[in-house]
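Entry for the shared binder. Reason: the reviewer on the internal report wants the predicted structure included alongside the sequence.
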Amino acid sequence: MERVHDEVMLRNFDGIVGIGRGGSIIAAYMASKLGLPTFYPLFVRHVGRGKDMKIVAHDLGQVKSLRGRLLVVDDWLCDGRAMKYILDRISEEAQVTTLVLFNRRGSAFTPDFVGAYVEEKEREIMFPYDALG
């Protein structure tokens, strides 16, 4: 993670975008540590499983107006659907770099920065902020 931190520091981002609860927690922390002036939480969630899974978004009105050098962050990238969903809605005028804390091997999406890889058989990671039960 130290290597990722050092590389991210060199990019001089204008803002950071957090995807969902987990990505927003990490993005808020990173925005503070990196001294970034702008933090955008974008709330999406996965509904259903497998081929029936859909991405449901909540209030993405600001996403089209984002410009500059943006770091888009998520906690866990399983197949990349949520990341792709958000990236498809950000203006082409923005210069986007992606970062995930954990990336499942074999994912259809390849982020620019990855904290750690997990095996393809892993289906879920429980974070302290996830609901139990």
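Summary line for the report: Helices lie at 2-11, 20-34, 81-87.
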